[in-house]
Amino acid sequence: MYAWIIPKDMSKPYLSPIFARAVHSGDWPENEKGWHEFCVALDYSKSNLIEVDTYSKDGVMHVVTIDSDTSNWTHKNAYFGSMDFLNKYDPEKIYEEISSQDLEECIKIDEKYAYQEIRKIKTQKDIDDLMRSALSFHDAHIESIEAKNDEIHVVFDPYWNRKIELWFEEKPKYENRLENPEYYWWDGGSIFMNQGYIYLCDEINAHSLDEGYWGMYFAGKELFYRILPSDNN
Predict the structure, then answer these.
(1) CA-to-CA dists, residue 68 to 8, 10, 73, 233, angstroms
(2) d(CA 155, CA 168)
(3) CA 142 to CA 165: how far, in whole Å?
(4) d(CA 144, CA 154)
(5) What does the DSSP assignment read for 63-132?
(6) Which helix (H) or strand (E) holds 133?
(7) What are phi and psi of 155, to 5 degrees?
(8) pLDDT tens digits for 65-103?
(9) Do the bridges between strand 63-67 and strand 49-53 make them parallel or antiparallel, or are there none, so unpaired?
(10) CB distance 216 to 44 below 8 Å
């Protein structure tokens, strides 16, 4: 996993791998556990591990995931997991107890990561990464749509401390059934591939335009996107 880390004081965000995630100790109701999630990442200096609450008490998000790959992780349940070589540590104590050798490995993992600001959708994993980064477009609102012959550029207002831009290219197309921009708010969205096109629509868990009651969709044979941190939650 790789993510933007937004410090508690909302100072300059930075990028770091996520080495572990878990829920703080406590007898939390099942429907509240997610609000007590934390991640283990490198600090701004990239020299030590720190614990970062995914959400603060007022709901501000401090971890904006870019890459959701956990193929090299040991998973304990829906909330607990870590990179395989760190599974011997308690996630809540890892930043205090980690050995110098394991810390060095964490730093090397960060140095090797090839970050790309603008990413291209090629596989289902790419779709999964975007959907996770966008929180499935929950509470998303479109700021602008710029349509040209060879490109449709869609910008979402900042939400959940992230700003999302998408470029639909190569024979792009879209349809908007919503007359008033005030109704451009999305409860959620879906991305799927169909007949050589990549679609994004404002319907949850849709696999084609024949499903649900979408109000707008965008499509192109190629889709590029960018996820940037924002101080607007």
Answers:
(1) 22, 23, 11, 21
(2) 12
(3) 10
(4) 6
(5) EEEEE---TTEEE-SSS-EEEGGGTTS-TTTHHHH--HHHHHHHHHHHHH----SEEE--SHHHHHHHHH
(6) helix 124-133
(7) -120, 130
(8) 888 888 889 887 767 889 999 999 988 889 889 999 999
(9) unpaired
(10) no
| Separation CA 79–CA 33 (nearest Å) | 8
Q: Please spell the DSSP secondary structure of 41-68, one letter per residue.
A: EE-TTSSSEEEEESB-TT--B-EEEEE-
- Segment 135-174, tens digit of pLDDT: 899 988 888 899 988 999 999 988 888 899 999 999 999 9
- Please give the structure tokens belonging to residue 185: 């708010």
What span, in angstroms and rounded, lies between the C-alpha atoms of 133 and 155? 15
| CB under 8 A, 24+ apart: contacts of 86-91 | 86/19, 86/20, 89/20, 91/20, 91/21, 91/22, 91/38, 91/40
Exposure string for 100-131, b = 16+ CB within 10 A, e = fewer:
eebbeebbebbeeeeeeeebebeeeebbebbb
Task: Name the amino acid, one letter, at 75.
Answer: H
